[in-house]
Amino acid sequence: MMQTAEVVICGAGISGIAAAYHLAVTQGVKNMCLIDERPPLTLTSDKSSEAYRNWWPDDVMVRLLNRSIDWLERWAHESGNRFLLNRRGYVYLTANPDGIDDFKRAAQSAQQAGAGEVRVHVDRSAAARYAPIDSQRFEEQPTGADLLLDRSFIRDRFPYLNEDVVALLHARRCGWFSGQQLGMYLLEQARAHGVTLLQDRIDRVSVKGNRVEDIHLASGGSISTRSFINAAGPFVKEVAQLISVELPIVHELHVKIALKDYLGIVPRHAPLMIWTDPQFLPWTEDERADLDASEETRWLLHELPGGVHFRPEGGGDSNLLLMLWAYHVEPRTPIVPPPLDEFFPEVVLRGLAKMIPSLRAYFGKASIALYDGGYYTKTPENRPLAGPLPVEGAYICGAVSGYGLMASAAVGELVAAHVTGSRLPDYATAFSFERYSDLAYRQWLANWQPAGQL
Prior knowledge:
By secondary structure, this protein is of the alpha/beta class. The chain is globular and about 65 Å long. The model has no long low-confidence stretch (mean pLDDT 95). It is 26% helix and 24% strand. The chain contains 10 helices and 21 strands. The strands form 4 sheets. A 9-stranded mixed beta sheet has the order 6-7-8-5-16-17-18-15-19. Strands 10-3-2-14-21-20 form a 6-stranded mixed beta sheet. The chain has a 4-stranded mixed beta sheet with strand order 1-13-12-11, with no helix packed on it. The protein folds into 2 domains: 2-50 and 179-249 and 380-446, FAD/NAD(P)-binding domain (3-Layer(bba) Sandwich); 90-173 and 251-378, D-Amino Acid Oxidase, Chain A, domain 2 (2-Layer Sandwich).
C-alpha cells in the first residue's frame, strides 16, 4: 500500500524526535512520519550521561550549544521542568601544577568562543565572589566559568576531593537532565501536532532524477515523500548509502556504570566532575603481578588518559553515581547490543579514586546497578551534520557524537529550517555536508586538532 507524507524521518532517537518537533510545532508542517524499528529513544539516546554544556573551544559549537540550551530552558519552563534540568556545572580538576596553565588556556579559549566570562580566584577572597552550586535550579545561575587556584578554598568547598588538587575550573552553563523525559515530552508535542510514529524498518529509498521519491519499508509498504531526513544515529552511514551518499564518520564505543554509593562518600549535590590528569591505576603488588602475567591484562598497568568523570544520578533517595571514562576510543563498527569490557567497572572506579580517595572503600566490592553503552558517531572535526545531502529532498540530522542530547534542540531546529526553506542561523554552513567540498575547509581540517571531546 502506498502512503504519502510531507516529510519522512528515519530514526526516533533524540535527533529525529527534535527534528520532528521543530518541523511540526515550530514550523507547522503537517503530515509527517517518524519511523524506527525500535521503541523511541532506546538505541543510544538512553545510553547517555544526559549532561549538557556550552563549554567548547570551538566558536560555532558554542553558538550551537547556547542556542540548544536556550531551548532546553524554554522547554523546562513550558513543561514545569518535567525533565529535571539543572545547572550544577562541569568541574575540571588537576593535581599537576603544569596543568594550571592548561586550564587558563582552555578557559581563555572557551571565553573567546563565546562560552562566557572567566573569573580567576587566586586566594580565599574568592569566597565572596564564587557563587555556590544550586543543585536544583537552572535559572539565575552564573554563566562563564570560575577558575579556583587556592588549594585551601578548593578543599573547603569540595572536602571529598584529593587534597593534592591545585586547580579547579568550574564551567557554569552546564549540568544535566533526564533525556528520556525530555525526548518523550518533545515526542508528545510532535504527535499532538500531527506527527505519526511508525515502528518499521526502512529497507530501500527510491531516487529518480537525483530526487527522493519513495521510502520502502520492511513490512512491505511504501511512503511517497519529497523530504527524507536521515536521523538514524549510529546507522546514519548505512541509511545514507541507501541513496548512494557516503558520510565521513567513524564510531566510538563509550560505556558507563552506575555505582551504588551506599557509604555516602559523594554528596548528592555534587556537580559533574572530571579528573584531567593521566594516571596509573592503583594496584597492589599481587594484583600487579597477576595483571602482568597475561597479555590480555597487561595494558591495565600502563598509563591511562585523563578524562575519568562522574555525576550523581537520581533524586533525593538515590545513592547512584554515574561513572564514565573513554580510555579506548578506537573506531569500530556498531553492534547492538554493544560488547562491554569486563574490566571497565573496576577500572573506572579505580580511576575515580584518584579524584576522590575515599572511593577506595569500594575496591573489589563495588555494587554496580547499571552497565551499558552506546556509540559516538563522529565527523573528523567532531561537528554534527545538519542539512541537505547531494540527493534533492534528502537531509542529514546526525553525527552528534557524545553531545546528541544536549545539541539535538538546535540541530533539529537547523534541519527543520533547511527542509522548510526558513531563515538559517549564521552557523548553518559549519554543519552542512557541503563543507567537505570547500577547499579552504579541507585545508583547515588537515591541520585540525581534536577539540570538544570531554
